[in-house]
């Protein structure tokens, strides 16, 4: 995974700023996270810090971003140097996460879908759990287990699923960010039962699945028909739990 995003680098930032897909993603993130005044937040798979910075803007007092890609962390640190917010960034593998502190909220925006085995998925969930205070929240965005490639490829939203193949108990997917130039990645689509097994084994309770909400401004900008495939065949989903 590190090598994929070492290559993507700044193109991922460009994608966030230009594609339609991040609009409901950001809207849903802000609704789930809510007000964080005085709280501590940990952002796993932080990339270049896009959502890490939003955690700070939501009022979090102490924010740490962690990513396995040195290139992405370097970009995040550069953004911090340009506009200081007091965010710390570290290179670390979320599947082998050390104890970084006691956080009120841990976010993982597209981390779990890079777990290549059940054990790796469980390790990611355990790492998040161990860094939460009692009652703390884990908010993860991942690939919807019920996505059906034959119903659509999602290319018009800026992220195209090129193909999938079933290997064992998970699908291996190839996809492309419609950045300039395009950037290809590989991820894994796990089943609902596997995700819930990993979360429960890690110790999480009150599990909840949430589909992304399309804000009114996105409908106004692109039209209702544009988002029909997004609603009818969701590719992305939020999974939350509490310690």
TrEMBL record:
GO term, biological process aspect, one: methylation
Keyword vocabulary terms for this entry: Methyltransferase, Transferase
InterPro entries: Methyltransf_25, SAM-dependent_MTases_sf
Molecular function as annotated in GO: methyltransferase activity
A Pfam family annotated for this UniProt entry: Methyltransf_25
Methyltransferase domain ranges (all copies): 42-136
Official protein name in the record: Methyltransferase domain-containing protein
